[in-house]
Write a structure and sequence with these properties.
Elements lengths: L19 E6 L2 E8 L7 E3 H6 L14 E2 L5 E2 L3 E11 L2 E12 L7 E3 L1 H6 L3 E3 L4 E6 L2 E6 L2 H14 L6 E2 L10 E5 L8 E5 L4 H13 L16 H8 L8 E4 L2 E4 L6 H14 L5 H8 L7 H14 L6 H11 L8 H15 L13 E7 L4 E9 L2 E8 L1
Parallel strand pairs: 2-8, 3-7
Antiparallel strand pairs: 1-2, 1-6, 3-8, 4-5, 4-12, 6-7, 9-10, 10-11, 13-14, 15-16, 17-18, 18-19
Length: 392
């Protein structure tokens, strides 16, 4: 992304106007949004909070004050997670963003600081009065309104308002405070601890995911497996270790680069541990995909297939056309399309893997084609052969 004189076309020069744009917040077109690279927080003012008809019950506590360059301190009313859409049509981004709610006079409705600018990978130019950010369909740009920016700036100067804030970090807050959350009501032994700075929307979704997978957790030493445990988990999580997971003997750490990606990474981990059914959301993600038209879309498809390949018999043979396109000039051929539709038909049928039983016999079947070696681990139950695991 770059800016040129062409981006400044229509902007009256010289000027010292701020960059003021419009976003869609919780479904409402919201004007007077200041893009401020100097702010260490994203802020929504209490008057705007009420205008958006938001419930104060959505606020979560936030203890640290804001401090201006002049030393003025303001304590936020709390923190709230809001749905924000930037851009229009095919080139837009929709994200859940955390805003600190502040009750003080302002000519602006919202201030977008470094947290959101960095998350959107956005670049701003006050000279061009424009912000640019990448999307799946190319770079999108949003232009600021110069007339409105002048009005806001003059009102700020006249009222001596403060709009550049820094969050004051306390020495004792370097280690995040954790809040105990019961996963089973009335059972204090089955609980987890969640960071208090986690947004309310993320906290709700995280707790729901954990409750849906309670049977996977080991709550006592009696639940622990034997001495082969380390070798077992190394093999089970071979596709996740170093990517979104680390395993240390009897401790497992799921890690993510972005907050909301953590839910997907945990779901993938739970699916591996559960070992009986594919995550329906992961299956639906493939079923809802349109045929890839670019390398990036093909890469997304292959990543989604990788998450489910333990549930797919002869996965490499079924998906070979997709993999081939990544090793040469991209071309979505009739062979790719036929394989894609066949994969969708396969995933559309309900399928389960059997949970292996201790002491039972397991049988390994091999299938060799011109392009891949596949294997199926089988166990017999009531004279029926049930698949336990597929690998290809």
């Amino acid at each position: 992304m770059f800016f040129s004189e062409e981006d400044a076309r229509g902007v009256k020069q010289p000027h010292d106007d701020p960059l003021v744009i419009m976003f869609t917040i919780e479904g409402f077109n919201t004007r007077r949004i200041l893009m401020d690279n100097g702010s260490s927080a994203d802020i929504i003012y209490l008057s705007t909070f009420h205008q958006l008809k938001l419930n104060l019950g959505r606020l979560c506590p936030f203890d640290s004050p804001f401090v201006s360059f002049s030393g003025v301190r303001v304590y936020p009313k709390g923190i709230v997670t809001l749905m924000v859409t930037v851009g229009t049509h095919s080139r837009q981004l929709t994200r859940q963003l955390d805003f600190l709610v502040v009750d003080c006079p302002s000519s602006y409705n919202v201030i977008i600081g470094r947290p959101t600018l960095n998350r959107l990978k956005a670049a701003t130019s006050t000279y061009c009065l424009k912000v640019k950010f990448p999307t799946e369909n190319g770079v999108r740009e949003v232009k600021g309104g110069q007339v409105l920016a002048k009005e806001c700036y003059q009102a700020v100067l006249a009222a001596k308002q403060i709009h550049t804030w820094m969050i004051e970090e306390k020495e004792e807050d370097k280690v995040e405070t954790l809040k105990t959350m019961d996963l089973i009501e009335g059972d204090a032994a089955k609980m987890t601890r969640v960071g208090t700075t986690l947004g309310p929307e993320m906290r709700t979704r995280l707790l729901q995911l954990l409750k849906e997978n309670l049977h996977i957790f080991m709550w006592s030493h009696e639940d622990m497996p034997g001495t082969t445990y380390q070798r077992l988990v190394d093999r089970m999580f071979s596709k996740q270790i170093e990517r979104n997971m680390e395993v240390y003997v009897d401790d497992m750490l799921a890690k993510s680069k972005e907050e909301f990606a953590h839910l997907d990474d945990l779901s993938e981990t739970f699916a591996t541990l559960r070992g009986i059914e594919a995550n329906p959301e992961k299956v639906r993600a493939i079923l809802d995909m349109t045929s890839p038209k670019t390398v990036k879309k093909d890469q997304k498809l292959t990543r989604r297939i990788t998450v489910l390949d333990r549930f797919v018999s002869k996965a490499t043979d079924k998906c070979l056309p997709f993999f081939k396109t990544l090793k040469q000039a991209f071309a979505w051929t009739d062979e790719c399309e036929a394989a894609f539709q066949e994969l969708k038909r396969y995933l559309s049928n309900p399928f389960l893997l059997s949970l292996s039983k201790e002491g039972g016999n397991l049988y390994l079947y091999l299938a060799v084609s011109a392009t891949a070696i596949s294997a199926t681990l089988i166990q017999e139950e009531d004279w029926k052969q049930l698949p336990v695991y597929y690998v290809s």
